[in-house]
Amino acid sequence: MPMTRIMLLSAALLAGCTPRIEVAAPEAPITINMNVKIEHEIHIKVDKDVESLLKSRSDLF
């Protein structure tokens, strides 16, 4: 009988030591700051014939 009591007591003590995991939402909302500046440059090289055509026919584009 004393061995049974010791086993029950140790089982009760070990059951009280189980880890507890808690998942909770944060108090403040999550803020993502996306200050992004995008710059780009386009360089076009054309032949002299195409360049003169574009100058003479400005209504193409």
What does this entry look like structurally?
There is one protein chain. It contains two helices and no strands. The chain has one domain (1-56). The model has no long low-confidence stretch (mean pLDDT 80). It has 61 residues and is an all-alpha fold.
Compact summary:
The chain is mainly alpha-helical. It contains two helices and no strands.
Outline the low-pLDDT stretches: none
Helix content: 25-40%
- Nearest-angstrom radius of gyration? 39 Å
Structural class: mainly alpha
Number of helices in the DSSP assignment: 2
Order of helices and strands: HH
Query: How many strands, what sense, and barrel or not for the largest sheet?
Result: none
Residue share in β-strands:
under 5%
Rounded mean pLDDT score: 80
Shape: rod-shaped
Number of domains: 1
Please give the number of β-strands: 0
Distance between the termini: 100 Å
InterPro entries: YnbE
Pfam families: Lipoprotein_19 (PF13617)
Organism: Intestinirhabdus alba
Keywords: Lipoprotein, Signal
